[in-house]
């Protein structure tokens, strides 16, 4: 089965965004409150400008001794990130994440961010898919002895 990013992996509108001028401290507080590892960063027109992840915060803020109270997301975010479309497959997303070492990707449709997908989201769906495939294969090979 071909799982599409929306609606199979994530819901439309399941994205958390902040502006480029938001301080890293405010972003970290929001990330902690929402229990997410990444936020979309938007420009003044509300369009995707970048993404900020826990890794960005560690490597571009903490490692350089910057002050989270005065440093903005625009200063540490990953600009112009790779994106997915709602119709991309889970396999496509996993491949991009594997090759480029990402854990989060924004989902964009008509120049608007409509979602965010994480490797954890993909793992859950692929785990269920693999378990189903194994059960079907066992049922085919061994018959009803394994729950066919």
Task: Please sum up the structure shown.
The chain has helices at 5-9, 24-34, 54-61, 73-76, 90-100, 119-142, and strands at residues 17-19, 38-42, 48-53, 78-79, 104-109, 112-118.
Overall description:
The structure is a single chain. By secondary structure, this protein is of the alpha+beta class. It is 43% helix and 20% strand. The longest helix is centred in the C-terminal third of the chain and has 24 residues. The relative contact order is 0.18.
What secondary-structure arrangement, pairings included, does this model have?
Blueprint: H1 5-9, E1 17-19, H2 24-34, E2 38-42, E3 48-53, H3 54-61, H4 73-76, E4 78-79, H5 90-100, E5 104-109, E6 112-118, H6 119-142
Parallel strand pairs: 1-2
Antiparallel strand pairs: 2-3, 3-4, 5-6
Helix pairs in contact: 5-6
User: What's the count of strands?
Assistant: 6
Shape: elongated
- Main beta-sheet strand count, sense and barrel state: 4 strands, mixed
Number of helical elements: 6
- Element-level helix/strand string: HEHEEHHEHEEH
C-alpha Rg (nearest Å): 19 Å
Q: Given the helix and strand composition, which structural class is it?
A: alpha+beta
CATH architecture heading: Roll
Content of β-strand: 15-25%
What is the CATH topology descriptor?
CBS-domain
Quick one: CATH superfamily? CBS-domain
Low-confidence stretches: none
């Amino acid at each position: 089965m071909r799982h599409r990013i929306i609606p199979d992996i994530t819901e439309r509108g399941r994205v958390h965004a902040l502006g480029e001028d938001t301080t890293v401290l405010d972003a970290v507080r929001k990330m902690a409150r929402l229990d997410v590892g990444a936020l979309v960063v938007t420009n003044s027109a509300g369009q995707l400008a970048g993404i900020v992840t826990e890794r960005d915060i560690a490597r571009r803020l903490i490692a350089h001794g910057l002050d989270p109270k005065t440093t903005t997301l625009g200063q540490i975010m990953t600009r112009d990130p790779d994106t997915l479309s709602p119709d991309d497959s889970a396999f496509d997303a996993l491949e991009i994440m594997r090759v480029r070492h990402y854990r989060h990707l924004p989902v964009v449709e008509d120049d608007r961010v409509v979602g965010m997908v994480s490797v954890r989201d993909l793992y859950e769906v692929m785990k269920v898919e693999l378990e189903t495939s194994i059960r079907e294969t066992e049922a085919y090979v061994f018959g009803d002895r394994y729950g066919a």
